[in-house]
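Per-record layout

source: Salinicola rhizosphaerae
name: Phosphate ABC transporter substrate-binding protein
length: 138
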Amino acid sequence: MNRVRASLFVLLLATALPASADIAVVVNKDSGISHVSRSDAINIFMGRYRKLPNGHLALPIDLTPLKARFYRALVNKDLATVNSYWARLVFSGEASPPQQLKNEAEVLELISNNANTLGYMDSAHVTSDVHVVLILGE
């Protein structure tokens, strides 16, 4: 009887916890960019430089609901550390943080209308309107 309860508990726990999909870094499908290295993504999203692999100005965007997962997967830092890092850069005038968007529909719209925008979203929600250039696993 205890085995049945334990099995049932494991089954309930597995179905109650949502599975996290990978995070897809995406660009405009007509940007001509086929791939962004992890190093390039770190440098762009952390404000070290603002150029895409094709040499154009990069306009990075953050997806607020996914931001903590993204930075944990990208640079293995928690959101408080990332926000503190950006506060120092902004205060010193060195850089400004990525634009913040509230949902994936906004990300898709902005990237679809701007060839220089680089963003991210849950890989399960990627559409044909954007091109995936990097996948970050958890």
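summary: The longest strand covers residues 130-136. The two ends are 36 Å apart (CA to CA).
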